[in-house]
Amino acid sequence: MPLPEAGQALVRPRSGEGLHALALTNGGVDALTQKQKKKCIMNAEKFECAFDPQFNESHLWPIYMFRPVAFGITKRREKMKLLVLCAISLVLALHAGLAASEEVEDASEFNYDPRSKSGPARWGDIREEWRTCSNGSMQSPIDLTSENVQVVAHLGRLNRSYEASNATLKNRGHDIMLRWEGVAGSIYVNGTQYLLKQCHWHSPSEHAVNGRRFDLELHMVHESPKGEAAVVGVMYKLGQPDTFLSSLTKYIEWIAGTHEVQRAVGIVNPNRIKIGCKYYRYEGSLTVPPCTENVTWTVVQEVRTVSREQVKLLREAVRDDSEFNARPLQPTNRRPVQLFSPTDSKLECENP
Ligand SMILES: [Zn+2]
Q: Please, are residues 124 and 285 in contact by the beta-carbon 8 Å criterion?
């Protein structure tokens, strides 16, 4: 099947028919490079994607999202669907919203299925207070490409000061979240203190580096006294197990096996989350509704490792019938992205 041109409507393939994946951006549909292709099969119940062995690269996740509105729906039906969506949005708008910097905890209203009316391209239509998901100009995640990254030495090492504290593991329906109940310490960015609140995992990674997505991404969500968020992202590729996840395995298994929504896990030390010294810095947003902007992102450059079983466990524990929980890449809109790389990395990165 030839790849459609950017902006061209896709035709829904018949059951069992293969279709190559396309990258999704707000600006349109971009054909992927040969390397990033993936074959997807659609049948009556399910839409499944698997690597096309011809293009497979062991640790490389392709950009896999589709533009859902383009799936062989006639314009008339599309209009009807939009009208229904508007009506639903209006009803939903009557419900009370969230505090601006908080991620949505009840995931039943949105999902990652590109064909669903609650999929990523429609998040902004679901609730009035989620409009930023559609019309924001500083959305996350983004592709961190060599072209848009400026290497700088002045940002300095990430100033982290964490402490062990009581935590609870929670199944949010779209991800597994570890929330610290007590004071778990903070990071300082540009003189502002942001307290560590929670961490959670996305698979595959949400951010990409030169078009590559990795197998997993951890987000450590911090909040300032003003309610602004600073998120630290750590990416993982398949390899040795991650020791922090290993320490939580039995609790995650418990949540997965018992269908329990949350479980106290005792004292958890955030310092056990290992991160490298160099990092990307840019201004973005939450990657789930309400997609609030003015989020300071720190994406650690060093890609760590996680075992296949650990990624599988996190995915299966969520039980949302989705194979992934990563939002499609968002346009950078010429946002500056800095990469902190010290001039003397041996001196600055290895000494505490
Ligand atoms: Zn996240």
A: no
Output the pLDDT for position 101. Answer: 54
SS3 at position 286: coil
* Cα 201 to averaged position of ligand 1 atoms, centre (Å): 6
- Give the domain extent around 56: 1-73
Domain tally for the chain? 2
CA distance linking residue 176 with residue 35, whole number of Å = 31
- Alpha carbons 175 and 123: distance in angstroms, whole number: 17
For residue 49, how far is its CA from the centre of ligand 1 (angstroms)? 23
Quote the ligand 1 centre to 122 CA distance (angstroms): 18
Note whether residue 83 is domain-resident. Answer: no
Q: Is 129 part of a structural domain of the chain? A: no
**How far, rounded to the nearest angstrom, does the alpha carbon of residue 349 sit from its chain's CA centroid?**
27
Report the alpha-carbon distance of residue 218 to residue 177 in Å, rounded: 10
CATH number for the domain that contains residue 310: 3.10.200.10
Q: Which of 20, 174, 202, 222 is catalytic?
A: 174
Residue 35 CA, ligand 1 centroid: distance in Å: 26
Instruction: Identify the pLDDT of residue 291.
Output: 98
The overall pTM is greater than 0.85: no
Mean pLDDT calculated for residue range 5-9: 33
| 203 within 8 A of 306, measured Cβ to Cβ | no
Q: Strand runs (DSSP E) across 110-175, as ranges? A: 143-144, 149-152, 159-162, 165-171
* 174 catalytic per annotation: yes
> Ligand 1 centroid vs 330 CA: distance in angstroms?
14
> Is 104 a domain residue?
no
Q: Note the pLDDT tens digit of each residue in 224-261.
A: 999 999 999 999 999 999 999 999 999 999 888 676 68
Taking each continuous run of H as one helix and of E as one strand, the counts in the chain are 6, 21
